[in-house]
């Protein structure tokens, strides 16, 4: 359909770019890294990823799109390092169909080498629903190989999908990303606060770190700090930044 054709052209014409949203250590406010988010500079302004990512997944365009975002992000991290800036860990969203590609772990390894980055500088974000895919065995093997390279794995939108907690034993997950719908309820909704506490307890017991998404208020940040949440991301701390702005952000940060 129309969006799919337009997206195919956008990829060819270089209308897709990335935005980098900074992540911070909640304990001391130090910069920790960035999440890369796909951005489509559409004729009629910006098309939000919530609209085109699902289309990309349905049409298979998520494979070239995901590859582009991955390479663009590593190139940017490499560029920032060459300027003696410290991008920290860059997180890239990866879809199930990418993980099913025959040589996806090798492709990432090749890119890391090309851009002179250590594997620890990259984090792969997957959603819980990736673990429910028909090819979950294949995907599990791919994640295992990626993890063995030394790349970190984060489980995105944690608590909102349909995966069972037993996946946490089977899949090498380093980090849980606390979904913003729960963070949003801090100070407002007792149920959300219980969920936030429970996820933080679970993560601490399993030795995994937690990134809180969608932090928009001081009260949310204080609540998360008191519970020992490791990393925060959200509009209170910074919106997603165009690469040039991410460079400026890091210059002010040193
Ligand atoms: O930027 P925004 O909050 O609108 O993103 C909406 C959703 O799109 C998020 O869940 C995010 O994880 C997803 N997304 C953004 N960029 C990418 C990408 O490059 N690949 C994949 N698979 N998902 C992405
Ligand atoms: O989990 P996912 O990768 O879908 O989330 C990233 C999305 O969340 C991005 O599209 C980003 O623009 C959006 N986002 C980042 N910080 C905030 C925030 O503080 N509040 C809200 N509502 N959205 C945010
Ligand atoms: Na994400
Ligand atoms: Mn998320």
Automatic annotation (TrEMBL):
- The source's superkingdom equals Bacteria
According to the record, the segments passing through the membrane are none
Q: Where's the EAL domain?
A: 1-254
| Record protein name field | PAS domain S-box-containing protein/diguanylate cyclase (GGDEF)-like protein
Query: What is the scientific name of the source organism?
Result: Roseibium marinum
* Section covered of the full-length record: 581 to 834 of 859
């Amino acid at each position: 359909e129309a969006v799919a054709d337009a997206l195919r052209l956008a990829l060819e014409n270089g209308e897709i770019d990335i935005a980098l949203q900074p992540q911070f250590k909640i304990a001391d406010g130090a910069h920790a890294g960035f999440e890369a988010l796909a951005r489509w500079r559409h004729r009629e302004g910006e098309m939000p990823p919530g609209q085109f990512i699902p289309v990309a997944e349905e049409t298979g365009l998520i494979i070239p799109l995901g590859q582009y975002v991955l390479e663009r992000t590593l190139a940017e991290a490499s560029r920032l390092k060459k300027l003696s800036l410290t991008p920290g860990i860059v997180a890239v969203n990866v879809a199930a169909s990418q993980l099913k590609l025959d040589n996806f772990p090798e492709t990432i390894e090749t890119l890391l080498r090309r851009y002179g980055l250590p594997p620890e500088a990259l984090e792969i974000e997957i959603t819980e629903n990736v673990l429910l895919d028909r090819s979950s065995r294949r995907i599990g093997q791919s994640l295992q190989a990626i993890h063995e390279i030394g790349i970190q794995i984060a489980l995105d939108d944690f608590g909102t999908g349909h995966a069972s907690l037993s996946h946490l034993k089977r899949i090498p997950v380093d980090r849980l990303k606390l979904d913003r719908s729960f963070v949003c309820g801090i100070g407002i909704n007792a149920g959300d606060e219980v969920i936030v506490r429970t996820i933080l307890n679970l993560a601490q017991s399993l030795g995994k770190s937690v990134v809180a998404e969608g932090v928009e208020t001081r009260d949310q940040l204080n609540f998360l700090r008191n519970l020992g949440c490791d990393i925060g991301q959200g509009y209170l701390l910074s919106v997603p930044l165009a690469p040039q702005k991410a460079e400026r952000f890091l210059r002010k940060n040193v």
